[in-house]
Design goal:
The structure holds two protein chains of two kinds.
Chain A (H helix, E strand, L loop, with lengths): L3 E2 L4 E5 L4 E7 L6 E7 L6 E7 L4 E3 L3 E6 L4 E6 L8 E8 L9 E2 L3 E6 L1
Parallel strand pairs in A: 2-11
Antiparallel strand pairs in A: 1-3, 3-8, 4-5, 4-9, 6-7, 7-8, 9-10, 9-11
Chain B lengths: L3 E4 L2 E4 L4 E8 L5 E7 L6 E7 L2 E5 L6 E7 L2 E7 L7 E8 L10 E2 L3 E5 L1
Parallel strand pairs in B: 2-11
Antiparallel strand pairs in B: 1-3, 3-8, 4-5, 4-9, 5-6, 7-8, 9-10, 9-11
The chains are: A mainly beta, B mainly beta.
Chain lengths: 114, 115
């Protein structure tokens, strides 16, 4: 079946460095993508989203890049801080399907080394 | 209270017990969701309610019974659970139709342990 997946299950980054978390998706009909952050003991928290008519979107210290040609999504975190340590999930939606369902990847655990 | 709240935050139950999880959203959304999150697995969608009507049931065993009395409240009734049902149960809400896309807001989850 079609699913969203992640290239790496864990990522360790030195504090102050930039982090890049990757996501591959297989449903070419997906047109909306979200990155969520989940800290220990908490529910997923929305970070940033992007629609398929864009290839880049920036937020505060975060940038999402979308490459529809290779069905690849990435989350870049600038100047990574200890508070960024969490599991990051990508999720995709096919808005045309009318089901309003998100498909989630397994997640990448980001550890920030002080 | 703001956002999406869930109670209890932690629950330990025996296989013969009956318990209920509660979710409440304070965002004015009309769609609510139950997800199961197990270790090292993607979030699994269990149920979807849109305007109090169940629109999705992703082959969830009947020992899980959802209830949505109104657009702000969602329950998950549990009975005769198995140890493999131990997981984090997450509730989410969204407002599909407000925009073309469906950003979901999550609660903190209920950590369920079945003995």
């Amino acid at each position: 079946g079609e699913s969203v997946g992640l290239h790496l299950p864990t990522l360790s980054v030195q504090e102050g460095d930039n982090s890049i978390i990757n996501c591959a998706y297989s449903n070419s009909a997906s047109d909306y993508f979200i990155w969520y952050k989940q800290e220990s003991g908490k529910g997923p928290q929305f970070i940033i989203d992007i629609r398929s008519n864009m290839d880049k979107r920036q937020g505060q210290r975060v940038t999402v890049l979308l490459n529809k040609t290779v069905k690849h999504l990435s989350l870049q975190i600038a100047a990574t801080q200890p508070g960024d340590s969490a599991v990051y999930f990508c999720a995709e939606e096919n808005s045309g399907a009318g089901s309003y369902q998100l498909t989630f990847g397994k997640g990448t655990k980001l550890s920030v080394i002080p | 209270e703001t956002g999406v709240t869930q109670t209890p935050r932690h629950l330990v139950m025996g296989m013969t017990n009956k318990k209920s999880l509660k979710c409440e959203q304070h965002l004015g959304h009309n769609a609510m969701y139950w997800y199961k999150q197990s270790a090292k697995k993607p979030l699994e969608l269990m149920f979807v309610y849109n305007f109090k009507e169940q629109t999705e049931n992703n082959s969830v065993p009947s020992r899980f019974s959802p209830e949505c009395p109104n657009s702000s409240h969602l329950f998950l009734h549990l009975h005769t659970l198995q140890p493999e049902d131990s997981a984090l149960y997450l509730c989410a809400s969204s407002h599909p139709g407000l925009a073309d896309y469906n950003e979901q807001f999550f609660g903190p989850g209920t950590r369920l342990t079945v003995l």
